[in-house]
Amino acid sequence: MTCIVQKYGGSSVADVGRLRKIARGIADLKRSGADIAVVVSAMGKTTDQLVAMSREISSLPPRREMDMLLSTGERITMAMLCMALHEQGIDAVSLTGSQAGIITNDRHNDAQVIEVRPFRVQDEMANGKVVIIGGFQGVSYKRDITTLGRGGSDTTAVALAAALNADRCEIYSDVDGVYSADPAVVADARHLPEVSFPVMQEMSTAGAKVLHASAVQFAKEKNIAIYARATFSPGRETIVRQLSPGAVVGVQAVVSEKQVERVRLQAADIHGCFKNTVDYLEKNQISIKEVNFIDTTAAGEQTSASFIVSTKDIYGWERIKSVLLNDLKEKIVFDTNLAALSLIGEGLNRNNLTLLETLGLLGDNRITVLGMATTAFRISLLVSADQIEKSVELCHTRWVDNSGG
């Protein structure tokens, strides 16, 4: 029997009317003979509202308690969707992430899935039920409720699809797939019918919102194709899957991330300074990326290090910064009001031409590049936050519109 895992995002389940419409579609699919597991997000802006409520109480709420609070949003959705399915004559059962066997590490607010034990899901499916699972949440090996970070319902769906050996994983949201840029920034952004796992993962890491980076990693490891679709506008879709190397070469997308800060350290004992700083951030469960380390001890000079922090969903970031500034004083500097521009695609760094031309293009338009980093599938540049949209438009015109694809 065909096994399908579906995931519906917050905009898709924003109100009772949409839940009823989704229930009708799931009911039709179930009557066709498929086994179905459905992962749901919180309704509409519920998570944002819960975060706002928490900040009325505390500027730095305990991360464990934030997980307890935020995990309630998905529970509302899954129960409501089950009720809607029962009205359609379909037997359904709702399960929390922990009941569905989503086991994570003990990191709160951005936990990693380490294992899926889908026995309860399989048992309910064997009894002919549609299983509705609260996304974005799991349980740690310490038996604490954890959440997987923004977009974590994608990870729930793909991890569950892998554990169930599902035939496919369908991700439904308010957009009909993946685009070459954010359509809100670039009006003529191209719809991408197919995207490889590495390219999609780089896009997600760099700020694209359609799929969560951890979900793509799971899909890549288990070779599960992801179908990204619009919930209420059937037609186009993007299939994220393994593609032959070189199938698509060049810049495929221009992605931006607006809320980033660069942390710079300078000290004679840079190793100790760096370690202590990262230790403190790790205790607060804050991830860093794009680490740059320069050790000139042998030359008798002061040494330095830097890294990037994505600050959008960090609770109490200003307080954390204050602690570091008070402790390290002149040894630490925070570069604020920055944004990251990323060119994503295959073969970008086989030579330096794409990087050099992009630097020239931005320079000609009086956009200062404040930092850069590269991977096999990405070129990322730091620019001032007030210049990011112009930077995206310029690079999209040059590398996507003029690519001839």
What does this structure look like?
This protein is α/β, with parallel strands linked by helices and 405 residues long. The protein has 2 domains: 3-174, 3-Layer(aba) Sandwich (Carbamate kinase); 254-403, VC0802-like (2-Layer Sandwich). The protein has helices spanning 16-31, 46-57, 63-87, 119-126, 152-164, 197-206, 213-222, 270-283, 317-328, 353-364, 388-399; strands spanning 3-8, 35-40, 92-95, 102-104, 113-116, 130-134, 137-140, 145-147, 168-173, 178-179, 191-192, 194-196, 226-230, 237-241, 250-267, 289-294, 303-310, 332-346, 371-375, 378-384. The chain has an 8-stranded mixed β-sheet, sandwiched between helices. It is globular.
Structural class: alpha/beta
Query: For this structure, what is the CATH homologous superfamily of the largest domain?
Result: Acetylglutamate kinase-like
**What sort of overall outline do the alpha carbons produce when their principal axes are compared?**
globular
Helix proportion range: 25-40%
Count of β-strands: 20
Largest sheet: 8 strands, mixed
Give the uncertain stretches in residue-range form.
none
What CATH first level of the largest domain would be assigned? Alpha Beta
In percent, how much strand structure appears in the residues?
A: 25-35%
CATH topology grouping of the largest domain: Carbamate kinase
Order of strands across the biggest sheet?
Answer: 3-6-2-1-9-13-14-12
- Number of helix segments? 11
What's the structural domain tally?
2
Name of the CATH architecture of the largest domain:
3-Layer(aba) Sandwich
